[in-house]
Amino acid sequence: EELENEDLFPRDFIIGLDAPDNYFGPRKVFLDGMSDYDEATYLRNIADNEDVLPIKHKINDDLESIPDSMTEALRTFLVARTIRDLRGQTDKHASMLVNASRFTRMQGLIRNRLQERLDAIRNSIRINASLGELGLRDPEVSALRETWAMEFQEAWPDWNEIQTQLLHSVSGAKVVEVNSRVNDLDYSTTGDRGLTVIAVGGFSLSRGLTLEGLTVSYFLRNSMMYDTLMQMGRLF
């Protein structure tokens, strides 16, 4: 009779383990870094998308440009990659995630617009970043410096070192599409240089795909369903 009242699972079947010191999970993002939403440590609110990329868009909508916040997220990623290289992590992968539409057609358009912005930034770096103070006359290089001043000045105080390193760090950066139609994400490299990749997708990114060295996430989705929100939260 006593045995019949026992649960199928023994009391000690599941043991809760403490997270390691270097674990960066939802508690650190949404609780520890959230004393004041306007001054959140790890989150940046997106408020400029509705005119160019509304959350509720249609499958056949066009995309002439990306929100300024997405460009700023790209700059943040490129500066972060450069700082990681200066720290001796050139052999490590670095990834940025962009999840802003569930439609594969729109994901392709976002990928194209992001590639155009990346090319413009990289061309400015190639031409002017080596000019030191004069290079800051280039609006793209100047914008990168502003991003560094706002986000990374404490992490790496010397902008001149970053500006000198920029071209080497971002020259191989690429934007890839990851969805049911195409998956250009491949971390297998033959050299000693880690990938610098911006992955644009939707459901494929939401369902457990691992992005190596995930540094920046640009997330433009909403849901009223708890399980969906939890699944989306994994991306952080």
Tell me about this structure.
By secondary structure, this protein is α/β, with parallel strands linked by helices. Helices cover 37% and strands 10% of the residues. The protein contains seven helices and four strands; from the N terminus they run ααβαααββαβα. The protein has helices at 26-32, 68-86, 104-128, 139-151, 159-170, 203-206, 226-233, and strands spanning 94-99, 174-178, 196-201, 214-219. α2 (68-86) packs across α3 (104-128). The relative contact order is 0.16. The model has no long low-confidence stretch (mean pLDDT 88).
Provide tags for this entry.
4-stranded parallel beta sheet; 10% strand; 236 residues
Provide the β-strand percentage band.
5-15%
Q: What integer is the average pLDDT? A: 88
> What is the helix tally?
7
Q: What structural class do the secondary elements suggest?
A: alpha/beta
Judging from the principal axes of the Cα atoms, what is the shape?
globular
Radius of gyration from CA coordinates = 21 Å
- Helix and strand sequence: HHEHHHEEHEH
Side by side, the strands of the main sheet go 2-3-1-4
Low-confidence stretches: none
Tally of DSSP β-strands: 4
Q: Summarize the biggest pleated sheet.
A: 4 strands, parallel
